[in-house]
């Protein structure tokens, strides 16, 4: 079968379509014929070798998608052949993927859904992350800042927050994205590359922000700590800039009397049942047309290099997807 693989850690050009063996499933696994594979920013981190414990290249990239159940192991129940599932599992940039129903990895799941295959390919990782993030907020949080508002997580997160009547300030990387993010419901949208985010927010929200969802890392962490209100909550869940947080110790000392909360969030550590429940909640909201998953572009497997280039350019909005 064809698979898009990391041949060496590094730039997008290190990706190549190779012929690999079709998975042979065990008694507890599903064999899924992949329809679409979602592309996530975390895939670019893995391609660069930025995560610990990665396999030695070459290996197949990807962590979510949708597809049809083609085979079931002898000990698998609750599924039917020919059933469409949304799944999260490693090596999804391939024509087939094996998902272990008894996996010790709580994020490795396959969930039957009543969605289109394209939409289903985006619910088990990025959209699931968005809904799990909203569950971290207290009922008292009203003014909320969302980094990467035009991204695959941010675009869903904004809609979920607005559905719960939060006031949403969103950050984007270009003026072209402002109108798009406003259309998702954001009350205020700032271009962090052109505008002084810290100065503007301090002026317009002098009491500070109740919560911040930070997908960026780097120098933005210390700045966000400064922007929090008393009892404010900063949730750091990604590192588009980098995984460092310079000056954070100084920022925390200054903010000490505000009793703020700094949380490091990894959706993969939630329980399997929590993750399944999040996917079903997203499915219901989509079927009821209460939210949508904006799509940027669909790429072929051979266009995977271009997809990674586009994602890292900062010029995309919504979800990028591979069609198998």
UniProtKB/TrEMBL annotation:
Annotated GO molecular function terms are: NADPH binding; oxidoreductase activity, acting on NAD(P)H
Which residues belong to any copy of the Enoyl reductase (ER) domain?
10-322
Keyword presence, Oxidoreductase:
yes
Q: Which InterPro entries match?
A: ADH-like_C (IPR013149), ADH-like_N (IPR013154), ER (IPR020843), GroES-like_sf (IPR011032), NAD(P)-bd_dom_sf (IPR036291)
Keywords from UniProt, A to Z, are: NADP, Oxidoreductase
Does the keyword field hold NADP? yes
Fetch the Gene3D superfamilies from UniProt: Medium-chain alcohol dehydrogenases, catalytic domain (3.90.180.10), NAD(P)-binding Rossmann-like Domain (3.40.50.720)
Pfam families from the UniProt entry: ADH_N (PF08240), ADH_zinc_N (PF00107)
PANTHER family per record? QUINONE OXIDOREDUCTASE PIG3-RELATED (PTHR48106)
Q: What is this protein called?
A: Alcohol dehydrogenase zinc-binding domain-containing protein
Q: Which organism is it from?
A: Vibrio orientalis CIP 102891 = ATCC 33934
């Amino acid at each position: 079968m064809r698979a898009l693989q990391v041949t060496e850690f590094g730039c997008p050009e290190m990706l190549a379509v190779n012929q690999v063996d079709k998975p042979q499933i065990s008694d507890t696994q599903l064999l899924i014929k992949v329809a679409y594979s979602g592309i996530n920013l975390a895939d670019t981190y893995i391609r660069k070798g930025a995560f610990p414990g990665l396999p030695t290249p070459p290996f197949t990239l990807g962590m979510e998608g949708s597809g049809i159940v083609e085979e079931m192991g002898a000990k698998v129940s609750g599924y039917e052949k020919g059933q469409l599932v949304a799944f999260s599992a490693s090596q999804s940039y391939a024509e087939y993927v094996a998902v272990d129903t008894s996996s010790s990895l709580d994020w490795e799941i396959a969930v039957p859904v009543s969605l289109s295959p394209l939409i289903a390919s985006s619910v088990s990782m990025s959209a699931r992350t968005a809904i799990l993030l909203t569950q971290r907020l207290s009922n008292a949080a009203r003014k909320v800042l969302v980094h990467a508002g035009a991204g695959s997580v941010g675009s869903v997160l904004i809609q979920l927050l607005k559905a719960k009547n939060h006031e949403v300030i969103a950050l984007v990387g270009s003026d072209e994205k402002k109108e798009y993010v406003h259309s998702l419901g954001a009350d205020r949208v700032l271009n962090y590359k052109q505008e002084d985010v810290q100065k503007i927010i301090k002026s317009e929200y002098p009491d500070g922000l109740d919560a911040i969802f930070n997908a960026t890392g780097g120098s933005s962490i210390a700045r966000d700590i400064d922007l929090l209100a008393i009892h404010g909550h900063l949730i750091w869940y990604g590192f588009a800039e980098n995984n460092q947080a310079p000056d954070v110790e100084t920022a925390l000392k200054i903010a000490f009397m505000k009793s703020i909360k700094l949380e490091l969030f990894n959706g993969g550590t939630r329980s399997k049942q929590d993750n399944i429940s999040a996917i079903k909640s997203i499915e219901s909201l989509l079927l009821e047309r209460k939210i949508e998953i904006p799509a940027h572009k669909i790429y072929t497997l051979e266009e995977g290099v271009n997809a990674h280039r586009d994602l890292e350019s900062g010029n995309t909005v919504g979800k990028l997807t591979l069609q198998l």
